Amino acid sequence: NGLENKHKWFAFVEFDDKIDPELFIKTVTFELDETFPMAKVVRRKSPYEYSCVGWGEFEILIVIEWQEWTNKPETELIHHISFAGDISESKFYLVLNRELIR
């Protein structure tokens, strides 16, 4: 039975502070290999997350499109996911200019 090699996983974008991320984020796009049933998902509202069942190793592209008033270009993050070995968690930290947070 191949089910024991499948794992439920999720990826998400969130803010550490008690700040509404929708003030800064316009969309978050999650892109996976075309073999996934929903290979591209665009989230326009918080929570900005994607969950799926997978196995093996693969990469997920996370594209953050910022609200126009921030004057920030899109941010692209490539996250490598592997189900070999121990369960782990990876984080990317993005720093916003404090002047943007009022």
Report the major sheet: 4 strands, antiparallel
Can you name the CATH architecture? Answer: Sandwich
Gross morphology: elongated
Radius of gyration: 15 Å
Keywords: Nucleus
Domain YEATS: 1-102
Organism: Euplotes harpa
GO biological process, one term: regulation of DNA-templated transcription
Structure notes:
The chain is mainly β and about 100 residues long. The protein has a single domain, classed as Immunoglobulin-like (Sandwich), CATH 2.60.40. Helix content is about 0%, strand content about 40%. The chain contains no helices and six strands. It has a four-stranded antiparallel beta sheet with strand order 3-2-5-6, with no helix packed on it. The protein starts with 6 loop residues before the first strand and ends in a 20-residue tail after the last strand. The relative contact order is 0.24.
Walk me through the topology.
Elements (H helix, E strand, L loop, with lengths): L6 E7 L11 E7 L8 E4 L4 E7 L2 E10 L8 E8 L20
Antiparallel strand pairs: 1-4, 2-3, 2-5, 5-6
